Amino acid sequence: MSFSMPRNVPSFDNPQRQYENTAWGSSGRSRFPDSGNGYANGASEKIGGMFGTKGGLPMYKDKPYNYSASRRKPWFRRKRVLAGIGLSLLGLLYWLGILSPAGDVSRISGKGEKSTWNMFSRPQSRIDWDERRERVKNAFTLSWGAYEKYAWGYDEYHPISKDGRQMVPNGMGWIIVDALDTLMLMNLTTQINHARQWISTNLTYDQDHDVNTFETTIRMLGGLLSAHYLSTTFPDMAPIPGIQGSSGEDLYLEKASDLADRLMGAYDSESGVPYASVNLHTGKGIVSHQDGGASSTAEATSLQLEMKYLAKLTGEKNYWDKAEK
């Protein structure tokens, strides 16, 4: 196969060549003397100005006579290298704990313990978890106190306007039931007694209104079962004299069973996958108002925990079978 020379090969004997060599000289000065009309130097300035005064690349593959072998900057003058070194140093300082707030132990614990660390681990400092726990508890009691004062028994609380709203005509105390286990874990005996009284005298599920199957199961049914578990398994947690932890403590379980019986209608579908909603009075399942009536698999498959635990407590196999199907 014959080889033909490309057409764009530079000409080295063209009279214009001397001006090109002048323009791309690394020193910026022509090796050809000025002819007197200033043309050589003028062309050099014009062409060089388009690409920078110094350090530009040659126009052709053959480098001018005074073009250095390498134009790469030393490693310590490259921005990427310097940036990488800087980030590495910052990461090392953070890893050693010098830039971490945990290093200031006296500010965190208030006890002045010294931080101990080595090159292979973050600083090991003592954190006052008791103090942090009290801060969380104080934040909760502040919010709970406002709810008790301005919207007790309502399903929703609006802290700015200081009022509440019911999600069903007579209300279901969503906030109260949902927070039962938290009240017990924080040992808030006064608040848990107030909540228990409301559940005993005011809470009823015989309401002609549809509710979301998933939300009602995880918040309402789950809240009652959690309260039953904590009050019977840990009787010293937020105890109510004569009631909490005794064999007669079945209020939460009774309410949970009544609610579960009303939720059973949601499982009466052809596939067994529960409907998205259910009417608490009629016990009839209702298809989703969106998505063409389809049920969310993420919601439906997470209902087994409450139903199966209730089956264990009551011995009613129906709850287990519905959820298992």
UniProtKB/TrEMBL annotation:
It catalyses: N(4)-(alpha-D-Man-(1->2)-alpha-D-Man-(1->2)-alpha-D-Man-(1->3)-[alpha-D-Man-(1->3)-[alpha-D-Man-(1->2)-alpha-D-Man-(1->6)]-alpha-D-Man-(1->6)]-beta-D-Man-(1->4)-beta-D-GlcNAc-(1->4)-beta-D-GlcNAc)-L-asparaginyl-[protein] (N-glucan mannose isomer 8A1,2,3B1,3) + 3 H2O = N(4)-(alpha-D-Man-(1->3)-[alpha-D-Man-(1->3)-[alpha-D-Man-(1->6)]-alpha-D-Man-(1->6)]-beta-D-Man-(1->4)-beta-D-GlcNAc-(1->4)-beta-D-GlcNAc)-L-asparaginyl-[protein] (N-glucan mannose isomer 5A1,2) + 3 beta-D-mannose; N(4)-(alpha-D-Man-(1->2)-alpha-D-Man-(1->2)-alpha-D-Man-(1->3)-[alpha-D-Man-(1->2)-alpha-D-Man-(1->3)-[alpha-D-Man-(1->2)-alpha-D-Man-(1->6)]-alpha-D-Man-(1->6)]-beta-D-Man-(1->4)-beta-D-GlcNAc-(1->4)-beta-D-GlcNAc)-L-asparaginyl-[protein] (N-glucan mannose isomer 9A1,2,3B1,2,3) + 4 H2O = N(4)-(alpha-D-Man-(1->3)-[alpha-D-Man-(1->3)-[alpha-D-Man-(1->6)]-alpha-D-Man-(1->6)]-beta-D-Man-(1->4)-beta-D-GlcNAc-(1->4)-beta-D-GlcNAc)-L-asparaginyl-[protein] (N-glucan mannose isomer 5A1,2) + 4 beta-D-mannose. The gene is MNS1_1. GO terms for molecular function: mannosyl-oligosaccharide 1,2-alpha-mannosidase activity. Residues 1-29 have a biased composition (Polar residues). Pfam families: Glyco_hydro_47. It is an enzyme of class 3 (hydrolase). It comes from Cryomyces antarcticus. Its cofactor is Ca(2+). This is alpha-1,2-Mannosidase. The lineage of its organism: Eukaryota, Fungi, Dikarya, Ascomycota, Pezizomycotina. The chain crosses the membrane at residues 81-99. Its EC number is 3.2.1.-. Residues 1-38 are annotated as: Disordered. Belongs to the glycosyl hydrolase 47 family. Keywords: Calcium, Disulfide bond, Glycosidase, Hydrolase, Membrane, Metal-binding, Transmembrane, Transmembrane helix. Pathway: Protein modification; protein glycosylation.
